[in-house]
Amino acid sequence: MEIRQIQVDSPLGRWTRHEWSPGPAEPLAAAVERIVHCDGVSLHPRERVFPDTSLELVVHVGEPHRLVSGSGASPLPAACLSTIQALPATIEAPPGRAGALGIRLRPGGA
Fold it and tell me: Taking the chain, what is the end-to-end CA distance rounded to the nearest angstrom?
């Protein structure tokens, strides 16, 4: 089991990303594509999320991100399921340090 660690220090912010994907022979391989943990500070808090066919369980560690719509932003639940997206969306990170754990599921794991 190998966990990759990626350190990012850029004009967009500073954060650490840990990522793990099960190997083909591991029991979770049929259900989980990858597990990702991110923690850090975003200097540009808004991010455009493009349409995607994946299904992901997201758990916010600390203050949750917000979904931007129109002129406002509403907080996402502490734990939520990101489903198939047909349209782009904008999410906004909370001010200061933020963290999230994402479990991207394979179609059979959903």
Answer: 23
Amino acid occupying residue 2 = E
The C-alpha R_g of the chain, in whole angstroms, comes to 15
Q: Which two tokens stand for residue 9?
A: 């220090």
Cα distances (angstroms) measured from residue 73 to each of 30, 37, 64, 94: 36, 23, 12, 11
Q: Is 13 left (phi over 0), alpha (psi -120 to 50) or beta?
A: left
Query: 54-97, pLDDT tens digit by residue?
Result: 899 999 998 999 999 888 899 999 999 888 888 899 999 999 99
Give CA–CA dist 36/59, Å, rounded: 11
Beta pairing class for 79-82 and 55-61: antiparallel
Q: Are 76 and 30 in contact (CB under 8 A)?
A: no
Structure tokens at 98: 């933020």
Strands 32-42 and 72-75: unpaired
Percent of the chain with pLDDT over 90: 70
